[in-house]
What we know:
Layout: H1 3-6, H2 24-45, H3 57-86, H4 90-103
Helix pairs in contact: 2-3
Pfam families: MazG
Domain NTP pyrophosphohydrolase MazG-like: 23-102
Protein name: NTP pyrophosphohydrolase MazG-like domain-containing protein
Amino acid sequence: MNPQNKNNFKVISLPKLNGLTPTLESTALKLMEEAGELAQAIGKFRAKSGENIKMDEKEVVDRMARELLDVAQVAVSMMFVLEENYNIDLEEKLKQHIEKLKAKGYLK
C-alpha cells in the first residue's frame, strides 16, 4: 500500500512561478480575485446568480476545476512569499497543519 493512500493523502504539486515579484498584499488581493472567479463560476453555471446560462454538466465541472486550480496556485504562491519575505518555515507550518487536522479528527 502506498503510504500516501494510507491517510487519504493525495499530493498536488504546483510550481513556483517565474518572473513575478509578488508582495503579501498583492498576492492576498489576487487570491480574493481568483476565489471570486470560482464563486462566479459556481453561481453562474449552477443558475444561482439569476442568469440563465446553458452549459452541460461536464463543462460546468471543468470550469470549476480550472478556477479552483487558479485559487490553489495563488495560495501556493502566497506561501512562497511568506517563506521568502517573512522567513516562515513552510515544512514546519505543514506539520502543524497536519497535526491540527488530526486533532480535529479529520485525519488518523
